[in-house]
Amino acid sequence: MEKITRYTIIFIVLMLLQMLIFNNIPAIGMISPYIYLVFILLLPVNMSKTLVLLLGFFSGLLIDVSVNSLGVHASATVMMAAVRPTVLNILAPRIGYESNNIPLLATFGTAWALKYITSCVAVHHITLYICFTFTFSDLGFMFLRMLINICLTVFVIMLSEIFVFKR
Amino acid sequence: MKELFAFIEKHSFILLFLILQIVSFIFIVNFNEPQKSRFGVVSNAFQGRIYSLTQKITRYFYLDIANQRLADENAKLYKNQEYSKFDHTINITHVDDAENNQQYEYIPAKVLNNSTNKIQNYITINKGWKHGIEKNMSVICPSGIVGVVVRTSKNFSLIMTVLNPHFRVSTKFKNSGFYGSLTWNGKDYKLATLEEIPLHVIINIGDTLVTNSYSNLFPSEIMVGTIESFYQNNNFFSADVRLSTDFKRIDYVYVVRDLYKKERENLESFMQ
């Protein structure tokens, strides 16, 4: 119960942060860090995969409503939520996860967290940019912007995990 | 039903993932202008391709109908062609021997059907009793005699040609004036037989035969053929005659109307 309230608070705070601050950074073009992904990334390892999917969908949809791009973030976040269990499996430590593990930087170390966050965020961003542009023309420029945005998002999420989410 | 639920439960993750992605896709395409227009372009192109493909396939099934329609159209076009029209003009050429001395009139006609290799050969022409053609009129062509009208309809006539065992024409030697009766030999469309030539007649190979007026059929002095060969047959000579008319290439003919025929027939009927 304590966990649920905690996640709810995290969710609300992240959403507000994303909607009110990060979406309004006057960045170049479509570049802006997507901090709200932290919520999906921080869900417990043994959480039901379908529940993660649903949570991803609704959080993405909420962001979509705020930036008026209905479906784009939802699709990207659902994609990320779908690959999250696979990524976790690949990155699993030799002894396996404990039942109530939370994929935190503080628990598994910086290198592990960087791999985990980068792969999840990459999947999210690739889907996101495909949905945004919806075309395969001008792939080079799109790819460049995507890479920059991935770096930015990963950087912000790493910072948040280092300084905010320690437990 | 139980199995269906089991299936859904087993694959709930994948199914949910697909459902959510489809919902997202529908949202993207329906609520975002640039994506909507791009999807519109893509889906239109896709639809267009599918449509053209199905059309390509179904076109084969309508080939029959298309062919039928084309054939009908062709028939209609043929119908309007000049050669499809029946010649209803009644133009008769007069041979002016002298003023008011007209005996023969000529009705030009086109050969529609022709045969040369049967036992009895006939030709069909495109003129009938409407044009003034009657039974027993003689038919000639520029190179010689053709035959006799045996049957007429309103627009057509049937002509018994020289190449018919029932055809018999009275001919004479152009140079000596002796006459004989010509019949077809029944085998070669180029050759006829002249029989019962008296033995005292001097025959040369290459002598020209023309019609005489004894038969009351052809005008006199119409070319018939030339002597190919001759031999003695009992008390008479028989000769093979090379016909001057090429019945394989007969195209236009003239039907001869004899204006004095009735009178002569009436007179000659007294003899019988």
In words, what does this structure look like?
The complex is a heterodimer of chains A (167) and B (272). Chain A has 167 residues and is mainly alpha-helical. Helix content of chain A is 69%, strand content 0%. Chain A has helices spanning 2-20, 37-41, 49-67, 72-90, 105-108, 110-133, 139-163. Chain B has helices at residues 2-10, 12-31, 33-61, 63-80, 261-268; strands at 93-94, 104-114, 122-125, 138-141, 144-152, 157-161, 169-173, 179-184, 191-198, 208-211, 223-233, 236-243, 252-258. In chain B, a hairpin with a 5-residue loop joins strand 7 (169-173) and strand 8 (179-184). Chain B is rod-shaped. Chain B starts with a helix and ends with a helix. The mean pLDDT of chain B is 83. The chains are: A mainly alpha (167), B alpha+beta (272). The interface between A and B is medium-sized, with 21 and 20 residues.
Short description:
The complex is a heterodimer of chains A (167) and B (272). Chain A is an all-alpha fold and 167 residues long.
Strand content of chain B: 25-35%
Rg of Cα set of chain A: 15 Å
Label the overall shape of chain B: rod-shaped
Overall mean pLDDT of chain A stands at 83
In CATH's first tier, which class of the largest domain in chain B applies?
A: Mainly Beta
In the CATH hierarchy, what is the class of chain A? Mainly Alpha
Structural class of chain B: alpha+beta
Number of helices of chain A: 7
Helix/strand order of chain B, N-terminal first = HHHHEEEEEEEEEEEEEH
Oligomer: heterodimer
Strand content of chain A is: under 5%
Q: Any idea what the radius of gyration of chain B is? A: 40 Å
Biggest interface, chains and residue tallies: A-B, 21 and 20 residues
At CATH level 3, the topology of chain A is Arp2/3 complex 21 kDa subunit ARPC3
Distance between the termini of chain A: 17 Å
